[in-house]
Amino acid sequence: MTRQISLLLTIACLIFSESLLAQSKIDSLLPVRGFCIGAPQPKQVDTFVKFINEELATRKVNTLILRVDWNYQFQSHPELRDSIALSKQDVKKMVKACQKNNIRIIPQINLLGHQSWAKTTHNLLRVYPQFDETPHVKMPEKYVWPNADGLYCKSYCPLHPDVHKIVFELVDEICEVFETDAFHAGMDEVFYIGDDKCPRCGGRDKAELFAGEVNKIRNHLALKNRKLWIWGDRLIDGKTTGIGMWEGSFNNTHRAIDLIEKDVVICDWHYERPDQTAVLFASKGFNVITCPWRNPKNAVVQTQDMVRFRKSVTPVMKDRFQGMMQTVWSGAGQFLDEFYGVKVNTEAGENTQSACFKAMFEEIKKMEESK
What we know:
Blueprint: H1 2-29, E1 32-38, H2 45-56, E2 63-67, H3 88-100, E3 104-111, E4 116-117, E5 120-121, H4 123-127, H5 163-177, E6 182-186, H6 206-222, E7 227-231, H7 238-241, E8 265-269, H8 278-283, E9 288-291, H9 296-312, H10 315-318, E10 321-327, H11 332-339, H12 353-370
Parallel strand pairs: 1-2, 1-10, 2-3, 3-6, 6-7, 7-8, 8-9, 9-10
Antiparallel strand pairs: 4-5
Helix pairs in contact: 2-3, 9-12
């Protein structure tokens, strides 16, 4: 009997050692293997948990960013909840699934920019219009781009004396319920900042305003040992690089790259071309993650680039190239329908979010097996 127990223990140790070796191998290849999506509606939570268990975990995804925004039943500011929003119980289902599968879960609330979309003002500025950076720009009945006001999305004023009390209460609450050590603040595509008509921001340096907001959020999170993640586009010079006004900045916020704290994690998204700006962020001292969207071929190239960067740079630089993250910009329900074949957009061909997701993680698996 003692021999049998000893043999069983030996086999268990060997299996455990092999599991650790396999995990070590993929972590060495790409420390971050991420997936970013809008938080599901309450009725979609169970399907999403199934997706975590059966699709994310099996692909060795280890980071899940959920764009929550107002889709939570906030207790600190119930006036800012969506009419249909996740309960604490809904969130805990997803947290439990991630913990079981060793997936780090990071919630996002869009801060600074993206306070509106098309003709809709989102909850923060709808409830607290005094925070609006550009109150003179009225929301149109029918939205078109380009437009005379340069309106893409509204921003809140980063220098308003009351905005951060509310914002940080939301951030603290969402981090607590998600049991997380990090928070994603969005901060992409900020076109309205330092507006000339703003009594607080007018005439100020836009790079300093942007950096000031990043550092303020970062410092607040640091009080509870949490890290800040943001999108990287406002830190790229869109004109000099030729990347343009969407994936880069045309209003001089790019100079903030030298003004923000180096422990801010940069999510570097490029969707039309596999631009290699991860090198820019790593050379500036930031940890960077490359983010594709719906082009499978680009995602494969970007994955290969990230692995190549990690192999070819100095030991000091290597770990700044953190990995890859698939981004999804439809609702969770729409993505799940596409992924499971419930509703397929035949016109999109191979360029879909689910195809990109599958291609990227298939490439990671292939590179892991050949390593």
